[in-house]
Every structure is written in C-alpha cells, then in structure tokens.
Design a protein that fits this description.
By secondary structure, this protein is mainly α. The chain has 23 helices and no strands. It folds into two domains: 218 residues, MetI-like fold (Orthogonal Bundle); 229 residues, Orthogonal Bundle (MetI-like fold). Helix 21 packs antiparallel against helix 22. The longest helix has 44 residues. It starts with a helix and ends with a helix.
C-alpha cells in the first residue's frame, strides 16, 4: 500500500470522487424538484394523525420485529463469539453480515412468505455475524489475567463463563442496547418489502401524496428512537421479548408452501444450466459458464460499477458532512442555541435509515444515483459527525481555560487533533457504504440491488444469489483495502484508544457496524 500520508489519502479519495462525477448519472427528473420539496415541506409542517390507530399498530410491530430479531441475532452471536477465532466460523460471520437485511428479507420471502418469520430472520441473520465479531473483540480486549489464573485442568467452557465473560458483560449490555436501536431502523425499513411496519405506512402515504400522514409516521418513528433509552430497561427485557413474541402471534400471514425450503435449497438457488443437466456432461458445464459469463458481464459488472461510483462519491460527501457537522455539537464553537439545532439535525440524519432517506430523495429528484448519493452522504456523515462531536467535546475539556472559541477553536485546536480519527471513521464506514449503495438499487437505482430485485421479480433466484455473492465479495474486498489503508497511515487503532473518547469501544463498533 503506497504511503500517501493522512492528507494525501483524503486528497486521493476526493480526487477519485471528482473524476467519477462526469460519468455519474446525477441528473434530476424533468419536474421541478423545488416545487416537490415545497409540497412535501408544507405537508411535513402539518402532521396528520387521523390514522393514529394504524400507525400505533405499525409502530408496535416495528418494535416487536426489532426486539425478536435482535434477541435471536444476539443469542446466535453470543454462541459464536468464543469460536470466532476459527476460520470457518469467522468466514461464515463475514458472509452473513456482508448482506443487507433487505436482501435477506427478499430472499426469505421466497421461502417463508410475508410472515413474522421473514422479518425476524432478516434482522437476526446479519446481526448474528455482527454480534459474533463485536462480542469476540470485547472478550479479546478483556483482562487476560483471570483466565490465566484458572486451574490447568479447567475446560474451555469454564474459562469462558467464569474468567472471560464477566469482564465483558457490561460492554455486551451497552452494545446490545445500541444494536436494538439499529434493529428499530432495520425493522422500519422492512416495511418497504411489504411487512406491516412503519416503513410500509411511509411507502403507502408517499405513493398517495399524503405528506401530512408521512410527517406523522416520521414523528412516531423519531419519538420511538429518541425515547428508547427511557423505556428499554434490562429488568423489563424478558417482558418485552415475551410480549413481542405474543404480539407476533397475532400477525395474520399465509401458510408457508409445503416443501418451499427444500425446493429453495435444492432447485431455486441452483444455476439454471445445472438444474436439469447431466453434471458429467461437458456440454452442461459449457452452458453454465456461458450463463455465468452473460450474468457477470451484463448485470454484475454494470451493477458493481454503479455501486462503486455511488460509494466513492457518497463517502466523500459523508466526509464533508462530518467536517461541517461535528462542530455543531461543540458549544464553544457554535454557541448554545446552535449546538441544540445541530444536535437535532445530526440525530435526525443518523437515526433515519439510509434506505428511507434515499426513498424520500427519490420522490424529489427522480430516478438517478443522485438520491442515493445524497442519502448515503447525509446518513453516514451524520454518524461520523456525531462520534467526532463527542470526541471534540472531550478534547475541549482538556484545553486551557483561555483557549480560543468559534472558528479559531475549530480550525486550530479541534480539527488537527481529531483529523486522524475522522479519517479512520471514514475508512470504517467505507465498507458499510458499499453495502448500502447496493441495497438502494431496490428503489430502481441501477446498483447491484436493482439487478437482484429484477431477478427476484422474474423468479430467477439463481441469478439473485450470484449477484448477492458479488455484493458480498465487493464488501469484503473494500473492508480488506480499508484495513490496509488504516495500517499504512497509522490509524488502525486510533479511535479505539481509551484516552481519546469516553466509551470508545462502543463508539468504534458503532462506526464499524452501525447503520
């Protein structure tokens, strides 16, 4: 990896994004986007709660899906964490977490239909891989002396439960609460594939142009996110879980087709040329390679190209949003009133799922990659700005009493001190943005998700699986390159240093795996 330095690395990413602009489809629709924004703004300023009963039911389902999915994913991740050091387990976890919940949902729809099982598993499967990685890192970071002091004949299970787990239990709880917040976002977004959560209501009202009702959905969603730490207490967790399971039982769903899972595993995902061909016949394999070549060249390659264009431009936009946004959380820079407004803006930006932001932007700017770039840039930029803002507040507390304020404080004290962390967080989010860029294709934007969705609609599950494998490999490749960049410029562990950011381990894992 070339040693570009921290400034050079940022300049290289900006230069790449600028070079991609001429070939990026950033055009706006023929209609006036500002008029559409005006109509949308007027509706958002006059929320319509006339459908409060239906919205309350959707909100309750959103919470129930999140709790059940996160509980199942956390349980699986907890069991896998001690084994994460083994390559097969680690590769399994990497594979399942590199595919977005919405992709899992549309695959599961082919087996379990529009059911509670689909929503729960769509959240639980990728979250299991995330939990396994994070939990294993917490266990590795814990003090190793109690484990070393265990009797020589102590078995693996005893060492794990009595010497390692107690030291990481608090971090487990903190991260589990954070992941539940992510689960609420994922659960809401599952409504866009037909599950009756808040996303389904949002989609319905948008299509009908009922922007007042859209405002009501968004208000309920933000209240749900903002108050989660008030109503989610650990002693009540079993009650919430039992209640969520019971509430799911009231959800009327069509029965799963007999043999659907067996058909899916043995027929649907098998490439068409191999499904009925003689595997001992060379002609069968010739047809398969022709089929694979056409799929990769005509769908995977253009989809991957569009995905990477969106990723690189959105990453740079997220960086600019973060640099502009993080001082909005530092009162000596922006003032008390400005910090309140900035905090609200960043909370909205990071709490709104990127898919939901892209959907809203699509209604305004029309079908191009522009809505995806705006949504991903704002969402990820707000996440990075939030983490940097907390770090900057901590840095300011360590400065002299006569330290400058305003723009001077930002430019000469805060920015130089947190620049390394800023770069590290951007590189951590790079992998996440790749996955998010692929998923916005479900909205009709020509990234990999567009071709996956088209294959599913044409009931060509074998093609969808190959395209998802391409998505997974792209995510893993970007993660590998990101780690190399971080190591080359000396920021691999920068945001994990305990003397820089309070509760930094949780913040770091939020940056890596949060959405």
């Amino acid at each position: 990896m070339p040693r570009l330095g921290r400034i050079g690395t940022a300049a290289a990413f900006v230069a790449l994004a600028v070079a991609l602009l001429p070939i990026a489809d950033l055009r706006m629709a023929s209609h006036d986007p500002w008029a559409e924004l005006g109509r949308m703004g007027a509706g958002l300023l006059s929320p319509d709660f006339s459908s409060l009963g239906a919205l309350s039911y959707a909100a309750a389902l959103t919470v129930a899906f999140a709790i059940c999915g996160v509980a199942l994913g956390a349980t699986a991740g907890f069991l896998l964490a001690p084994l994460y050091r083994f390559a097969p387990v680690r590769l399994l976890c990497i594979a399942i977490r590199s595919i977005h919940e919405l992709f899992w949902a549309i695959l599961l729809l082919q087996v379990t239909g529009l059911s509670a099982t689909t929503g729960i598993l769509a959240i639980a499967i990728p979250y299991a891989g995330i939990f396994a990685k994070v939990f294993s890192e917490y266990l590795d970071e814990a003090d190793s002396r109690p484990a070393a002091a265990m009797p020589p004949r102590a078995d693996f299970v005893s060492v794990h439960f009595f010497a390692r787990l107690p030291l990481a239990a608090r971090e487990f709880q903190v991260y589990l609460l954070y992941r539940l917040e992510c689960g609420l976002r994922s659960s809401a977004v599952l409504g866009f594939v037909g599950l009756p959560t808040l996303g389904f209501q949002l989609d319905t009202f948008f299509k009908q142009g009922m922007y007042g009702a859209v405002a009501a959905v968004l208000i309920i969603y933000y209240v749900l996110i903002a108050t989660m730490r008030l109503w989610m207490h650990w002693p009540l967790a079993p009650v919430y879980l039992i209640g969520s399971i019971g509430f799911m039982a009231t959800l009327t769903t069509p029965p799963m087709a007999q043999g659907a899972l067996i058909r899916f595993l043995t027929s649907d995902i098998v490439p068409a040329p191999l499904r009925n061909g003689d595997l001992a016949d060379g002609e069968t394999w010739s047809r398969f390679f022709d089929w694979l070549h056409n799929l990769l060249v005509n769908q995977a390659l253009p989809g991957l190209t569009a995905t990477m264009i969106v990723t690189q431009i959105a990453l740079v936009l997220a960086g600019f949003v973060a640099l502009i946004g993080f001082p909005l959380l530092v009162r000596p820079v922006i003032g008390r009133f400005g910090s309140i407004i900035g905090h609200i803006g960043l909370v909205v930006g990071r709490s709104t799922p990127e898919y939901m932001l892209a959907y809203i932007a699509l209604q305004v700017f029309g079908p191009s990659i522009l809505p995806a770039v705006i949504a991903l840039g704002l969402h990820n930029g707000a996440i990075i700005a939030h983490l940097l803002g907390r770090q900057s507040a901590h840095v300011h507390e360590s400065l002299r009493q006569d330290a400058p304020r305003g723009i001077v404080l930002y430019a000469y004290e805060l920015l130089p001190r947190i620049y390394g962390s800023f770069l590290a967080l951007c590189l951590y989010r790079w992998e996440i943005i790749v996955r998010e860029s692929a998923i916005v294709g479900l909205l009709g934007i020509a990234t990999l998700g567009f071709y996956v969705d088209r294959a599913i609609q044409e009931i060509r599950i074998d093609r969808a699986v190959i395209l998802l494998l391409v998505t997974m490999l792209a995510t893993v490749a970007i993660d590998y390159i990101s780690r190399k960049f971080r190591a080359a410029i000396g920021i691999e562990k920068l945001v994990a240093k305990k003397d820089q950011v309070p509760t930094s381990a949780t913040n770091l894992h939020a940056a890596i795996s949060g959405r």
